[in-house]
Amino acid sequence: MKATLIEITTRENLRRAQAQCSRHVSAIYFPFSIHTQLEDSFPESPVRVFVYPNISHPKMFFMFKDNEFIKPTLALAQVSGTSMNRLELIDLINEFRTRVFGAKRQPHLVIAEEHLIKMYGVAMRLSSSDWTNNDLRLSLFYMTESQKKLAMTTPLPNVPHGYYYDEIEPTEEAEIVNNTWKHAGAGDLEQTMAKLLRLPSSCVRFNGKPVAFEMIDPAGFFNNQYVFEDHRRKGLGNAVEMDLIHKTLSIGFSPFKTVAKDNKIVLDASIANKLWTMWSDEDGNAKTIVFQTWRCD
């Protein structure tokens, strides 16, 4: 008998799922996403959440974001300490895809830990041979409770003379922000504008112009930290990140971010930063989160 997903539809059970996911780094993308659904705080990305085998004793969570401006986003998370049969997992992935896409062959993004992404790829290729994918491999950084407390008592860094903290103007400056993001594609300008309108962000200005910034994605992760070249090596990247950490904690959520495996400078700096913990296995090896984009040729 094939495994069956349960869709979580009531507010009470969404809150239960939110609380359960908050206890597991593996499900770190779920709590803030569920919050946006409960509060209707990011209507451009409505969320559906599924659980297996049930809400009381979950092993797997699945999430679907039917984004208005960009390709749909899927997220998979296995609860820490549980085990899954591979064939059972493939059945779950196929059921999940059928329930959110139906018969449509739709380009999409999948976010999951590496071992789940591998199983997703198996399921995709068993269904059809004309799907292709691109993978972005990342390390995940999060904050422990003690790091959160330390962050809240750590003042914002002083920025050099002439620079000052401010907010990005969403309608006028979204294009500036979006144009710096190397992964931007169709619809991302509108998505960036919505992020800046509805979610926390940070900015440092010089002569009235934004020269460093960072924002939060509707899944909760820190997104698109950027400092213009003429203003680098002044600590502005750290400044906007610290400002965003304060803003995220002040609304009751845990900061987290991903760093590309090949971005050695930022990776090393994040590992050395006392406010961040890199998600690792029991032997201290960094775990890998994959952002996998699928398209049908």
From TrEMBL:
Keywords: Acyltransferase, Transferase
InterPro entries reported in the protein's UniProt record: Acyl_CoA_acyltransferase, Glycine_N-acyltransferase
GO MF annotations, alphabetized: glycine N-acyltransferase activity; N-acyltransferase activity
Enzyme Commission code(s) on record: 2.3.1.-
Xref: SUPFAM superfamilies: Acyl-CoA N-acyltransferases (Nat)
Keyword set includes Transferase: yes
Secretion signal span: none
Protein family (similarity comment): Belongs to the glycine N-acyltransferase family.
PANTHER family for the chain: GLYCINE N-ACYLTRANSFERASE-LIKE PROTEIN (PTHR15298:SF1), L-COA N-ACYLTRANSFERASE-RELATED (PTHR15298)
Protein name from the UniProt record: Glycine N-acyltransferase-like protein
Organism: Caenorhabditis elegans
Taxonomic placement: Eukaryota, Metazoa, Ecdysozoa, Nematoda, Chromadorea
